[in-house]
Design a protein that fits this description.
elongated; 51% helix; six-stranded parallel β-sheet; single chain; 6 strands; Rossmann fold
Length: 218
């Protein structure tokens, strides 16, 4: 075998290994979450619904994706499936406040303010799950996000100590290019999620404990 042929063979092998290392974590989390994704009627009741941030418009209002996540959590609340809703999102900048926008939308749908808890440091899915357990002392929850993101969220929360089921929010109509982008993004994000959950365990922004059960006592 010539040197060129060996180089080509090695290159193909490295490409295949690289592709598998990207695809396998995504396939694993998809299979892992199959039995954990429910609809509103069939999901077991849990004390808390966790809603993951998904961006705001320039005026500070929630994007359609985020609005649907909140709408689904509201349905869970009024169906008696959850008692509290944890709104987790990004608030690193004074003019960008995902939890506040989520809260405002839930209030407009009739959820009492005392049953809404806000996590201002849910910058990533990993951070939201970690903080739910560490800061808010949530050990059981229903996760609310769109299906393309739900398997990663379920894997992270269950691995980080929050026993979770998931309910998929509706996905508003978007272009095929946008949907493809989200799917491709999830491949890379899932690799990072598995690495962080099982190996590196980075610390997100933390703070004083704020157990959600304490809200129930007020």
């Amino acid at each position: 075998m010539s040197i060129l042929a060996k180089i080509i063979r090695l290159s193909v092998l490295l490409i295949l290994v690289g592709l598998l290392s990207l695809i396998l974590p995504r396939l694993f989390t998809e299979v892992y979450s199959l039995s954990l994704i429910k609809d509103i009627e069939s999901t077991p009741s849990h004390p808390v619904a966790i809603v993951f941030g998904a961006g705001l418009w320039r005026d500070g209002s929630p994007t359609p994706v985020l609005e649907e996540r909140v709408n689904t959590a509201v349905e869970l609340y009024f169906s008696g499936k959850v008692e509290k809703i944890l709104m987790s999102g990004d608030n690193r900048f004074w003019n960008y406040n995902e939890p506040a926008a989520m809260r405002a939308h839930a209030l407009s749908r009739g959820v009492p303010d005392e049953d809404i808890v806000m996590d201002y440091a849910g910058r990533r899915t990993y951070d939201t799950c970690y903080r739910a357990a560490e800061i808010f002392h949530v050990d059981q929850a229903i996760l609310v996000t769109q299906k393309y993101h739900l398997s990663r969220a379920l894997y992270l929360c269950n691995t980080l100590g929050v026993s979770s089921y998931g309910v998929a929010a509706q996905l508003p109509p978007y272009s095929q290019n946008r949907l493809l982008y989200w799917q491709i993004r999830e491949v890379g994000a899932t690799v990072v999620a598995v690495w962080e959950a099982k190996i590196s365990r980075p610390l997100p922004v933390l703070g004083n404990p704020e157990p959600i059960l304490s809200f129930e006592a007020q």
